[in-house]
Amino acid sequence: MLAELLARAREERVFSAAAWSVGTADGVLSRGVLGTRWWGGPPAGETSRWDLASVTKPVVAVVVAALAERGALSLDDPLPRHLPSYAGTDKASITVRQLLTHTSGLPGGTPLWRTHTTSESLLEAIRTTPLPVAPGSRVEYSSQGFILLGLIASAAAGKPLDALVAEYVTTPAGLRNTGFGPAPDAVATEDCTWRGQVVTGQVHDENAVVLGGICGHAGLFAPLADVERLGQLLAAGAAPLLKPATHTEMITNHTAGLRRGLGWQGLDVPGSPVGIALAPDSYGHTGFTGTSLWVEPSRGRYYVLLTNRVHPSRTSNAITEVRRQFHDAAAQLQ
């Protein structure tokens, strides 16, 4: 059922490749890989890695939560406690918790890379650009907030972000082939005019490129088996990554209106990117490249869908309906 749905989407050129896994902590109900790493390229397979895009965000959120468990930071710390240059700015009162729940007041999609070509310049633009709204006043999905979370984690722990992801997520979870790029075995993403080539193995997100590819909002690559493994661990309660109370706090809704946990998105009805067939307590995250990881705690189930829907172009929104159909069908699996 799921294979046929995704094969049909490939025939309609929504993506050149897809991988999926649906199941519980105890077993897999459906999984597979289909298509080619790029149009006319070699087949995608079990070892092919996928640009997770914003699915990087909840992984970094787990790192932040793990550091909070160990006392390296508090979720209620204001920005300047870890990033002193923010003292005296309009962002000085923003807390780690507000960054995690997308209530910091920082703006949403902003192509800073167009006018800021170095990491230093881009980060300074985040620091100095006036906030459009006051912290805590509304939910607005912001990659800038997770860029700052990556910096906060590094400052609090005294280690680079990639080392923290390895220490607190990929190593204890057994995700042996997940990490920041470059990833030469990756499925291709966009035919990018800015880079003058089809992007394969470099992070798709342009702001992440300027920041060096290791940052809090995007940059991780993983094969299906690793994202599947992460889904199974989350469906079982997130051990050994987090204490039960910490995991519960992460997946609990903390906002009014749009449902946001700490680094996770809740099931918004209507408007959920994964449809409305999943349980009301479900949570997850999507990625711009066509990836997603979703979990239903009450059913102990996980849903992984990995595609390269931006290949060769990001212009189509056909993945929106495919995602909903996939999750609607997957929810019915027995």
Question: Topology of this protein?
Answer:
Blueprint: H1 2-11, E1 17-24, E2 27-35, E3 49-51, H2 56-69, H3 96-100, H4 119-128, H5 143-157, H6 161-173, E4 179-180, E5 191-192, E6 197-198, H7 206-210, E7 220-223, H8 224-235, H9 244-251, E8 265-266, E9 283-287, E10 291-296, E11 301-307, H10 319-330
Kindly list the characteristics that best describe this protein.
334 residues; Beta-lactamase; 31% helix; single chain; 15% strand
Please report the total strand number as a whole number: 11
For the record, the CATH class is Alpha Beta
Give the strand content.
5-15%
Unreliable runs, pLDDT <50, ≥5 residues? none
Order of helices and strands: HEEEHHHHHEEEHEHHEEEEH
Average of pLDDT? 97
CATH topology description? Beta-lactamase
What kind of sheet is the major sheet?
6 strands, antiparallel
Approximate shape: globular
CATH superfamily: DD-peptidase/beta-lactamase superfamily
Structural class assignment? alpha+beta
For the terminal residues, how far apart are their CA atoms?
12 Å
Rounded Rg: 19 Å
Number of domains: 1
- Examine the secondary-structure arrangement and name the CATH architecture: 3-Layer(aba) Sandwich
Widest β-sheet, arrangement of strands: 2-1-11-10-9-8
Q: Supply the number of helical segments.
A: 10
> Percent range for helical residues?
25-40%
